[in-house]
TrEMBL record:
Signal peptide region: 1-19
Boundaries of every Fibronectin type-III domain copy: 5-106
Organism of origin: Dissostichus eleginoides (Patagonian toothfish)
A GO molecular-function annotation: cytokine receptor activity
The protein, known as: Interleukin-22 receptor subunit alpha-2
UniProt record similarity statement: Belongs to the type II cytokine receptor family.
Amino acid sequence: MCRLLLGAVLLGHLGVCSAAQAPEMLSKPTEVRFDSVDYRHVVHWTPPGNSSSLQYYVQWKIYGDPDWLDVDGCQRIQKPQCDLSALTSDLREWYYARVHASSPPASKSAWTLSPRFSPRSDTKISSPVLRLNRTVQGIVVRVKPPRLLVRKMHNSLQYKIYLIHSSGEETVFDMDCCSKKLTLKDLKHKTKYCLQAQTLIPAHARSSARSAVKCVTTL
């Protein structure tokens, strides 16, 4: 009887030691989300506390698919971001990403899931840059579109040019993707005009905010 009691005590002691030596679960990353501008889709997350030595693993999948896939180049990384542009380029699909943290050699966190992401509707479209020149004919307007948009959908881009008169009244002009310039004529001499531009992608029903205001005084 004494031997049985002693054995039970020893086993209990060993169990306590084993539990104490088990690796603790790491705190998981938070705020996993897609930040997308001009169809460049980068997943960002907020690291847990004391994160200087942590490594991160990123996976992705298409909405409706059962299997998660590793993101090449985003395994055992230390920066809290991962570019998924190449994997999430189909504008017809919806996507998820998830991230977990690891502290070598053994401890790791649970996965944190991103909200569902649509590259068609969730990307932010950048405003174009206006370049203005004065001539005796009027104001010559040139538009420099965002570089990424030019590469991805050059033929789909259109622009609206807003001419703001000193009275506050606006006149709106349309430019297509291939127009090199727009000359605004029949303006008052030695008068200040301000302009803004906006990027449009009609095929996706998307548009940017207006660009910064630029003003010029006619000759």
